Target: Phosphate acyltransferase
Amino acid sequence: MKIIVDAFGGDNAPLEILKGSAAAVAAYGCDILLCGDESVIRKVAADNQISLAGMEIVHAPDVISMEDEPGEVVKTKKNCSMAEGLRRLAAGEGDAFVSAGSTGALLIGSTLLVKRIKGIKRCALAPILPSDSGFYMLIDGGANVECRPEMLEQFGIMGSAYMEKVMGIKAPKVGLANVGTEPTKGGELQHEAFSLLSKAPVNFIGNVEARDFPAGVCDVLVADGFTGNVILKLTEGVAGTLFGNIKGILKANLKGKLAAAMIMPGLKAFKKRMDTDEYGGAPLLGTSKPVFKAHGSSNAYAFQNAIRLACDFAKGNVIGTIEESLQGSK
Amino acid sequence: MKIIVDAFGGDNAPLEILKGSAAAVAAYGCDILLCGDESVIRKVAADNQISLAGMEIVHAPDVISMEDEPGEVVKTKKNCSMAEGLRRLAAGEGDAFVSAGSTGALLIGSTLLVKRIKGIKRCALAPILPSDSGFYMLIDGGANVECRPEMLEQFGIMGSAYMEKVMGIKAPKVGLANVGTEPTKGGELQHEAFSLLSKAPVNFIGNVEARDFPAGVCDVLVADGFTGNVILKLTEGVAGTLFGNIKGILKANLKGKLAAAMIMPGLKAFKKRMDTDEYGGAPLLGTSKPVFKAHGSSNAYAFQNAIRLACDFAKGNVIGTIEESLQGSK
Model:
């Protein structure tokens, strides 16, 4: 298994990317193809005693930043680490590609350089969110602001394949994000997507109301990218605000600090369960080869997890499964 | 000030509605016109020692339930307490109408029996949500699943008028729910709504990302009813899940229980701040006379608050302000 890594993507690149890659080589025995400025990679590795064993380096001097227009990845920034990695993936020089860089650039670059699976209308970003019963996949998390019903059907098919093959869930429950559970709820997009998903080769459980998302009533939550992005960011926002307030109460005075010490093990276990670093980021589903988006804020641990999931993404033959399901849905 | 009350709307009607109404008469000195089955009202009041001083009763024997199709409020259930109250409001027999009954029925009934403000395209439900800096209004909370840009502009104008006149916020900050802060973010609906709101007679602060809603960066958050409903219910869902887990940690063992006792005052104050009963429900904005939707689960305290807000809604001349703003936006 060889994973192609964008060594210059994300807030903590290249140091945390190199650390995470080295840890992944040690833990999973995979090979890594690092894309980025070779001299900088070698210097950062040497300065921080990071072993480059099991890793090759492909020199790519440019960097596409969060400030760049996403389209620049195939225009003025053709020689950036992300574009180079995607070209190598397309050429079959590795089994999967991982980047913590700009989501927009990764979407455009993947679509143009790696191409979509035949028949897939749009690629979607599919983050994994914590829930009361474990976790669930949200698809689309924000790649496609405007969607047609057949795109939502395909999101359900792709998400189901990933959750089964990579996350090990048998017959994943697929739900449609809606304003009520009755089939007549929502607008035209939801009505038609409901009808298509009912006939698709997935375990469709119907509409799911937003109140029930965090409870984990489904394994794959299908939404257009606008709604999905709101779901993703609002979940983070509400959780962050509440944790901030609880923290404030626990730090307010001596009693609070004593209380904090008493419930620390429980709080820590809960925090770990809620920690998205465990899930490493989000697969990009719909490309003809596995592309994995690590969190922009990835530290070494999160990036190592992203590499592990990219290995499973390739090993699990998710893309072959999606291709078969597309045949089944026709 | 005379408030018309639907005595048979909501999960806890008529008992909690009667208690809340009696408390409102005592606290605010308003008069109340109770709509509902007169003999039942008199019996429940007598059985529970609730004074009916300051209240008149209009006999309306039917009840529209959550199971009824909303449209039945003007068809087979014409004699229900809600329809009767709306007709009395339209006839000028009271200054505002409050119901904890079916939201769908209230929307249809208000639109058909009370009518919209001239020029207003759609009525919107405008719940108040807690935020880190106090609270904010979400408009539309779910009345209109599919929206046009000019509807979003009007939601901003109506929300701004209410927050200024009823909640006492000077030049309320109006934000547009979107997937990023740049004006180019979102789909066609958001682009056009952004442009219209920029020229509208409100303090428009631009797009707001979902991560920032709970921080309270704006006083009025404008969204189409589909997105708004997801925001409303997901906020409740995430908060409920997190509180449930924290509660579990605090009840897990003796240490947890001791810790709970130590931080109880802080937790209670925080819970009160998050408690939507304080805000009593949501105004329905766009009708030609004040209509206020109390929570379906309202207890006496929440319903009393709803009556207070309905009084302020009428006193504040919100509808006159909206009419003036509509002139200004042309």
In short: Chain A has a mean pLDDT of 94. Chain A touches chain B through 51 residues (CB under 8 Å). The longest strand of chain A covers residues 203-209.
